[in-house]
Specification:
By secondary structure, the protein is an alpha/beta fold. It folds into 2 domains: 278 residues, Ureohydrolase domain (Arginase, Chain A), CATH 3.40.800; 68 residues, no CATH class. An 8-stranded parallel sheet has the order 4-3-5-10-9-6-7-8, with helices on both faces. Strand 3, helix 1 and strand 4 form a beta-alpha-beta unit.
Length: 352
């Protein structure tokens, strides 16, 4: 184990490069390096895999390393093995350390308390942040609301099912994307994922028929393909710094299907990150501009579309000679509504 004086907590050892993980497919993306933890500061790693629950994480690795990883030849990904100290504070401090190095940690078999602790540590260092929770139940966001600080700018709850909520909980947060709204159009999730710093994926949000490792055996929920799509959106998010994936049961499945689904979710998260790298949303020369004028108002809104990822933005209508105007994430539907002079309320807030 290695000790980091900066955060005063124990860092995990690197996973040994055993025959189990030394598959040739891992070579292009630099998995399982024999390096000390302080060498992370000398490398240009972009994504790190971390096991929180060792049993679940190793089951995940069996499936993940069987996937086609040659798609990620231009990325640098490292597997840091399994944490030996999985206390809430240590898990959050490990994430903070990696984020400080501009490395995106993906935690396998985590708990929601780790996610809450990350919020507390972000607040302690005065770091503004936005969190997203994919879950069928709003109750898991209550501890974040209780410990709410001025540095927690927004909380997004995705995949919520109304019949599992109390009426009070539905009024406790304004940024909710219900399962029914998400299913109407997958792109509805994009504004919820574009500006998120950290995301927690509660596997109980997936329907039991698609994932029998859930703890609540809910017959309704996300389809497996939708779970992977959500992770891809998180990976391509402009500010995503970490992804937590919850624990799951293994008793009901001996075929490894559950672990294969989680492996696919992580695979698509990494693919989304790869798309983001080629997007360069902050360089307008790489975007197509669409100008919309609102009749009888004199207002002009500049929309931008990336031809690489298909993402849309609108430009904050503020003229400042000292700073570039900010590009705000939006959807294609919001652009169409604006063209039809039905400007969405979210855009009107910026106009006012």
């Amino acid at each position: 184990m290695y000790f980091c004086e900066k955060y005063s907590y124990m860092l995990p050892e690197f996973l040994p490069c055993s025959s189990l993980f030394a598959d040739s497919k891992c070579t292009p993306v630099h998995f399982n390096k024999h390096e000390k933890m302080h060498d992370l500061e000398l490398q240009n790693y972009e994504i790190a895999l971390i096991g929180v629950n060792p049993i679940l994480s190793d089951l995940f690795r069996h499936k993940f390393y069987s996937l086609s990883l040659d798609h990620f030849r231009k990325l640098t990904i490292v597997d840091l093995g399994n944490l030996k100290d999985v206390s809430d504070s240590n898990v959050a401090a490990t994430v903070m350390y990696l984020m400080d190095l501009k490395i995106i940690p993906i935690l396998i078999g985590s708990s929601h308390s780790h996610f809450t602790q990350l919020h507390l540590q972000c607040s302690q260092v005065l770091m503004p942040h936005r969190f997203a929770l994919v879950s069928d139940n709003m109750s898991k966001i209550e501890d974040l609301l209780i410990s709410h600080s001025m540095f927690l700018k927004e909380i997004y709850s995705i995949g919520v099912q109304r019949h599992l909520q109390t009426s009070n909980s539905l009024h406790s947060i304004s940024k909710i994307l219900y399962l029914s709204e998400f299913r109407k159009k997958l792109s509805n999730i994009e504004p919820f994922t574009r500006n998120v710093d950290a995301a927690y994926f509660d596997l109980n949000a997936i329907r039991y028929s698609d994932f029998n490792g859930s703890h609540n055996s809910n017959p309704s929920g996300l389809f497996s393909e939708e779970a992977s799509s959500i992770c891809k959106y998180f990976g391509s998010g402009d500010k995503t710094k970490t992804l937590f994936i919850s624990s799951w049961k293994t008793e009901q499945d001996t075929s490894g299907t559950n672990e294969l689904l989680i492996a696919q979710m992580v695979w698509y998260f990494i693919e989304g990150y790869g798309l983001k790298k080629t997007d360069h949303s902050n360089h307008k020369k790489n975007l197509t501009q669409y100008i919309v004028e609102i009749k009888n108002t004199g207002i002009q809104i500049n929309f931008y579309k990336s031809e690489i990822s298909g993402k849309w933005w609108f430009e904050e209508p503020i003229i400042d000679m000292d700073h570039s105007n900010v590009l705000i994430p939006c959807t294609y539907d919001e652009y169409l509504n604006t063209v039809q002079e039905q400007v969405p309320d979210r855009i009107l807030e910026y106009l006012n």
